[in-house]
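Ticket #4471: structure output looks truncated?

Reporter: J.K.
Steps to reproduce: submitted the chain below (216 residues) through the standard prediction queue, then opened the result file.
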Amino acid sequence: MTDPTGPTDLGSPTDPTEPAPRRRGRPSRAASAGTRDRILTAAREEFSARGYDKTSVRQIAKAAGVDSALVHHYFGTKEQVFAAAVEVAFAPALAAPDVLAEGPPDGVGERLARFVLGVWEDPTTRAPLLAILRSAVTNDTAAAVFRRLVAAQLVRRVAARLDLPDAELRAELAAAQLVGTAMMRYVLKLEPLASADVEEIIVRVAPVVQKHLTRP
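Returned output as attached by the reporter:
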């Protein structure tokens, strides 16, 4: 006969007070997001330090503390990893089209020049942008990724806000002026442009950007 006063099984899986055991298999959504972010951070750092050509998926995985298979799982090829890293690094500049609507049309050149150069002047946002441009000028694949991002996320969005003929060409010329200025000042560091006061640069560049965007 069973002793009714004997010990009971408090660890029974049917006990509603016990937490359900974690299932094996796929990681949680939070863990997946954390792994993906860690890979992206490592990718930006590796591309910045080595450039596109000398960076491999294996190096990115090692820096992120994961297996190479996980990099391929989340992003695919090296080109796709670079594209994702570029998009994150370029994100601060993607607000540029919104600047067009923040004031009168006759000040759009100054607002856009101030915004773009302000992104470059900030050391936090400058470092990943430098990595992008350095890779883009030395590798055709990296250049193609950068070109697609600028065209799709920046130029076309700016053009959509212009009610003028040849809007996309106008937006491209304005972008060329600003990207070219950034390249010479922050990447090539050509003097006296590299040491000039940013306010002086804005004063000189803004009228050119204004002309591209608004004048007939």
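Triage note (M.O.): checked the attachment and the full token line is present. The CA atoms of residues 159 and 166 lie 9 Å apart.
Status: closed, working as intended.
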